[in-house]
Amino acid sequence: MNQVEGYQYVGKTTGQIVLEVVRARIRRRLLEESTTPFYIFRTDTKQVLAKGVVGYDAAKQKANEIRKRYGLKWDQVSFKSERKAAASTGSSSYGRHQASTLGGVPRSGRVDVAQRFNPSKGRRFRGYYDKSGNYHDLD
User: Fold this and answer.
1) I need a labelling partner for 130 at 20 to 30 A (CA). Which of 3, 16, 56, 87 fits?
2) Please, what is the end-to-end C-alpha distance for the chain in angstroms?
3) What is the DSSP string of 61-81?
4) In the predicted model, is pLDDT for residue 135 greater than 50?
5) Is residue 104 scored above 70 in pLDDT?
6) How far apart are CA 77 and CA 65, in angstroms?
7) What is the mean pLDDT of the segment spanning 117-128?
8) How large is the average pLDDT for residues 69-84?
């Protein structure tokens, strides 16, 4: 009896299970796109023309309205999803962190947390620079 994340797949082949998982992932992405806020900007000047437009289709329609209103060409107006607020602590965020939030580092320094995941450690690559400019790997 195959069991994946609480769902039971009795009598199904591996291909059928994979297909169901892929379809579930596509449904989740479509749901996220319909509730994600977008911002619309000019590509040549990077000027933001509208913010907080919810949904991909609504952003596409609003970008088209703005393009027509200002007489811009198709390649001058674009839209992107707004970045979600990253958690201040935890392994899901990356970038630069205060050293006091991560162990094994001098309190005065800052820690670089990479976007790439280190599978052997089960978390992201981490390290810091000392006062001399030398990099120290924490993994």
Assistant:
1) 87
2) 39
3) HHHHHHHHHHT--GGGEEEEE
4) yes
5) no
6) 10
7) 71
8) 87
